[in-house]
Amino acid sequence: MQRRGALFGMPGGSGSRKMAAGDIGELLVPHMPTIRVPRSGDRVYKNECAFSYDSPNSEGGLYVCMNTFLAFGREHVERHFRKTGQSVYMHLKRHVREKIRGASGGALPKRRNSKIFLDLDTDDDLNSDDYEYEDEAKLVIFPDHYEIALPNIEELPALVTIACDAVLSSKSPYRKQDPDTWENELPVSKYANNLTQLDNGVRIPPSGWKCARCDLRENLWLNLTDGSVLCGKWFFDSSGGNGHALEHYRDMGYPLAVKLGTISPDGADVYSFQEEEPVLDPHLAKHLAHFGIDMLHMHGTENGLRDNDIKPRVSEWEVIQETGTKLKPMYGPGYTGLKNLGNSCYLSSVMQAIFSIPEFQRAYVGNLPRIFDYSPLDPTQDFNTQMTKLGHGLLSGQYSKPPVKSELIEQVMKEEHKPQQNGISPRMFKAFVSKSHPEFSSNRQQDAQEFFLHLVNLVERNRIGSENPSDVFRFLVEERIQCCQTRKVRYTERVDYLMQLPVAMEAATNKDELIAYELTRREAEANRRPLPELVRAKIPFSACLQAFSEPENVDDFWSSALQAKSAGVKTSRFASFPEYLVVQIKKFTFGLDWVPKKFDVSIDMPDLLDINHLRARGLQPGEEELPDISPPIVIPDDSKDRLMNQLIDPSDIDESSVMQLAEMGFPLEACRKAVYFTGNMGAEVAFNWIIVHMEEPDFAEPLTMPGYGGAASAGASVFGATGLDNQPPEEIVAIITSMGFHRNQAVQALRATNNNLERALDWIFSHPEFEEDSDFVIEMENNANANIISEAKPEGPRVKDGSGMYELFAFISHMGTSTMSGHYVCHIKKEGRWVIYNDHRVCASERPPKDLGYMYFYHRVPR
């Protein structure tokens, strides 16, 4: 009530007209059913427009809907009124005035300002000693724009008074993103205090992790009971996985797991399978130490110092941020900065680079009227709306205006008054794109490369019709795996969105300097003297490119020619070149002591990049392919019964959901897998599975179902599926013939594919010479439940292939010792000159540090 008294004790706004109590009541009566008092679960937006970056500080103020509690700037409030019919809005405006001067010319002494009641950040452009603020609130009734000034506590109906007070006293909807609050939002796991940890001698290495049940090396989770390292599920944190960590919990009942790669002295991502949510583990350091991980020293260095204690590192910060040079601020369209929300520079740098690409500009900002007009009732929860809002904010120039002439004169005359650029605050955008993601929704520093892939995933899932701007990044990688013993090869293709270049440290051109520096550094540490000036390794770009193209050993390679594990090597080439090539320098690694390390190197990245020599060539004359045989599936004896009980019968797959997805243009087999692996939960859930998994090499390959396909090949010992003389199981033959194929086709196909049902179907399509007739025989009239089989070859991922000649137009640099700390900035080449984007500061670059970047963005040029 004290806050309400402060509000309603203020004078009315100059734009309001005085009305009698009866007049006010008469105006509000028709709209009373639409006025709500915010409940505990309601998000009240009173700081930022849903479609723009207007706020109460803006010239037109902000309009808060008294029913939905969404906020709109003057330019967008009419759209909301037309779409919803909601008529009553609270208009919020903060006025900024120069302080009255005293007789001596100075400002009057400070006193408590009762005219401020909005919870807003003060404008960085204004010196608080010279300016004062006054907040104004009033109700506005559309479409006639009747204004009811507040204070009218005696004249307003009680419900309206309570609603207005609740709106003004509501907390920010972004509290989860505010510093030091994210972790408090998570519950403490009920299993943390008494967690059982097996004394099995397991020690987790600092790198080289791989899922114990498949070949995945990303999105890996360490079970805190037995130390198993297994892949996560796709729907948990928007990254790919086969769900083996969840399967392990179902098998063993061990409840807690921690995500590898997120461990730091501040904590890590812990998930409780039993509680089905991210949780806190107060004893995480002890639980990790059980497996040889010293969490509390994850950010330490060899000499025990922190990042900010290492003086040689300062030079990296100075060089990348171009400290010490007088940088000229840039204003106008395309030169708008993004305010740092607390370790949000990774997001800002990526989004600045993304919206410098014409395809993204056209897809979102170019379609702004249509996207905004057809946005859902809550545009704050719509990806395309928020992308368009951010793109317009960065490109319109509305939030990047140079100071007026009088301010420039004042800046010269009065040094202490130094206006800074406003920029825009991406709170609403970050809240949406990071929700349900345990890392990006936190206030911790993140990896810009991981966020880039996360954003591409969101763009894929929320594409506007057939238009998908992320197509410009997509390319195909040809992987050639050779069995070292038989010399036979296998060629596969997979989708990727960036090129990861290893750092060829052994190719440093200043090895003598590095050796001398290392000796001097160790001597200084031993004698506790100041460390010498850092000597940075100079690595030729050609050496990194050579390291990328060299063969690498394949761990746990199973040779189908030998039917056993063998040594194998893999080489990667480009099966297609993207329109825009993103290159990541793999600078980050872990030491043997689990301390994160960064290769502090200088690489002479070229402005013009030619990688045409890395074009894939496919199967070469004289090469013999490895047999298309899958490795046997070994199922532990104690899991057989459980697995059999969890199998989904092929006939249970929801064919209506499959066909809904197929009508969108996805391969039929991929649609069936999506519906199968999401447990028949509907087309929408299956669609999300498709978007996450569509870049996998076996995306369009037939589904391998345990007990019907993949497991059948091992089923002689596990399920008893195979018979004598390699005669296919009758139940699998019956499934194929029920689809309209002849028995001899089914038998021949199953024998050729080791009794794998889905591969047998694919084999039938690719071997028409084994058909009795020239056309496929599909007896739909005799089998109403038969699947619809497509004769067309599944359409592959869309790529924009062309020349492998590129030109550098942007790069993102990282300062610090690991991706879990430090700072990111972005340099972009615009209008023929380099520009540095350092949070909200945008300036013309004088010495762009192209040799110290982390991610590089190239666009294709004609050869």
TrEMBL record:
Keyword NAD: no
Any one GO MF annotation of this record: zinc ion binding
Residues that hold Zn(2+) according to the record: 211, 214, 231, 244
Localisation per UniProt entry: Cytoplasm
Keyword Cytoplasm annotated: yes
InterPro entries named in the record: Papain-like_cys_pep_sf, Peptidase_C19_UCH, Ub_carboxyl-term_hydrolase, UBA, UBA-like_sf, Ubiquitinyl_hydrolase, UBP13_Znf-UBP_var, USP
Domain USP: 336-861
GO biological process, one term: protein deubiquitination
Keywords: Autophagy, Cytoplasm, Hydrolase, Isopeptide bond, Metal-binding, Phosphoprotein, Protease, Repeat, Thiol protease, Ubl conjugation, Ubl conjugation pathway, Zinc, Zinc-finger
Gene Ontology cellular-component annotations: cytoplasm
Active site, per annotation: 345 (nucleophile), 823 (proton acceptor)
Top enzyme category: hydrolase
Catalytic activity reported: Thiol-dependent hydrolysis of ester, thioester, amide, peptide and isopeptide bonds formed by the C-terminal Gly of ubiquitin (a 76-residue protein attached to proteins as an intracellular targeting signal)
Main function: Deubiquitinating enzyme that removes conjugated ubiquitin from specific proteins to regulate different cellular processes.
Family: Belongs to the peptidase C19 family.
Protein name: Ubiquitin carboxyl-terminal hydrolase
Organism name: Zalophus californianus (California sealion)
